[in-house]
Design goal:
The chain is mostly helical and 349 residues long. It folds into two domains: 1-167, no CATH class; 179-349, no CATH class. The chain contains twelve helices and four strands. It has helices at residues 2-38, 52-81, 86-96, 108-126, 133-178, 183-196, 201-215, 220-242, 249-263, 271-276, 278-298, 319-340; strands at residues 41-43, 46-48, 302-303, 316-317. The protein has a two-stranded antiparallel sheet with strand order 1-2. It has a two-stranded antiparallel ribbon with strand order 3-4. A hairpin with a 2-residue loop joins strand 1 and strand 2 (46-48). Helix 11 runs antiparallel to helix 12. The longest helix has 46 residues, at 133-178. It is globular, with a radius of gyration of 21 Å.
Length: 349
């Protein structure tokens, strides 16, 4: 029992470490992207930035977001195994957050968290090897990072990504069968898929499905999806504002950044909160996004561009219900967080 508690505490510490190092990258990315897109125009490809200066700012923001997941994975491993774990786990985190392998699978922040933990314990095990002094000097800079990246990278590509790719194909087929059937069920599923991994394969499957339907002139599923993408960051932002005793100062500061990200439909703004408290945050944002998506489908809300948040309101059919569905879904998530998240000790605030 004591060993299990130690492992749990080590993992909790590792996730908190990963989040604390990741936060600046999230904030930089979110703020720059929000500022750039707020000056853009809604087009067929989403929000299109016309100013070169704002495009440069957008590129800097995208770079911040691209670094976010590798940093998370790298410093999870660092917490477990020290410096030798950083580089291989960052590489693996990058791999998790980008399409790879024959099926071009990505697993997002959930995959990066898993690889960060596995890389940390793999490196920790490597450090116990009894080797002569000559080899020991090159272990942390050559042998450990190369071996860790190769072994875990190949394991991920050939063992983990294949079933995930098959599952995503099944999800697309299942959604295709639902289309035209129960609007509420389809909206619930799209909304839940949007929030469950926030930019990961399940979220991207929902995106691909709605984009395919948009090409055929069917815009309601995209409306449900674009309502749902804004709910997780908006819910976390509002929760940090009204339930201040449940969050530390770092979380409350991040809440302001999440607010901007929610307004422009960047779901990833909620990722740091989910990493730190997955068992409470994930259910809350999944349920809230599912409710928002269902309400959007029920009321035939149509988003005419592949982007989300309130920033696209001018190109939405059913504007009132778009806003109402987003508000109600956010309220549901905030209420669940209010009743499930405990207050922090005074020393933690």
């Amino acid at each position: 029992m004591k060993q299990e508690n130690k492992v749990f505490k080590d993992l909790q510490k590792a996730f908190n470490t990963g989040v604390s190092y990741m936060l600046p990258s999230v904030v930089v990315g979110g703020v720059f992207i929000a500022l750039a897109l707020s000056t853009g125009n809604a087009g067929d490809g989403g929000m299109e930035v016309t100013s070169q200066f704002m495009q440069n700012l957008l590129d800097l923001g995208i770079a911040g977001f691209s670094m976010m997941i590798p940093i998370l994975s790298g410093y999870i491993a660092y917490s477990i195994a020290g410096k030798p774990g950083i580089a291989p786990a960052m590489i693996l985190g990058y791999v998790a957050n980008n399409p790879i392998g024959e099926g071009q699978v990505k697993t997002g922040f959930l995959g990066a968290m898993l690889l960060g933990v596995v890389a940390g314990y793999f490196v920790k095990w490597c450090k116990t090897w009894k080797v002569n002094n000559t080899i020991r000097t090159i272990m942390p800079i050559l042998i450990v990072p190369v071996l860790t990246t190769f072994v875990l990278g190949m394991f991920y590509i050939y063992i983990i990504s294949a079933p995930i790719g098959a599952a995503m194909d099944w999800l697309v087929a299942t959604l295709g069968e639902l289309q035209g059937g129960s609007a509420i069920v389809l909206g619930l599923i799209i909304g839940a898929m949007t929030a469950i991994d926030m930019g990961g394969p399940i979220n991207k499957t929902a995106t691909a499905f709605t984009l395919a339907l948009m090409a055929e002139g069917v815009y309601a599923p995209n409306g449900a999806h674009r309502i749902a993408v804004a709910i997780p960051p908006l819910a976390m932002a509002i929760s940090t504002l009204i339930d201040r005793k449940k969050y530390n100062q770092e979380d409350r500061d991040l809440g302001m950044s999440a607010l901007f990200m929610g307004l422009i439909g960047i779901t990833e703004g909620a990722i740091p909160f989910a990493v730190k408290d997955m068992k409470r945050v994930l259910p809350a944002i999944i349920v809230g996004s599912a409710v928002g998506g269902a309400l959007g489908m029920m009321n035939n809300v149509e988003a005419l561009v592949p982007h989300g948040g309130l920033i696209i309101l001018p190109v939405v059919n059913g504007k009132l219900w778009y806003v109402i569905a987003m508000f109600i879904g956010t309220f549901v998530s905030v209420a669940m967080l209010h009743f499930t998240k405990p207050n922090l000790d005074e020393s933690e605030l």
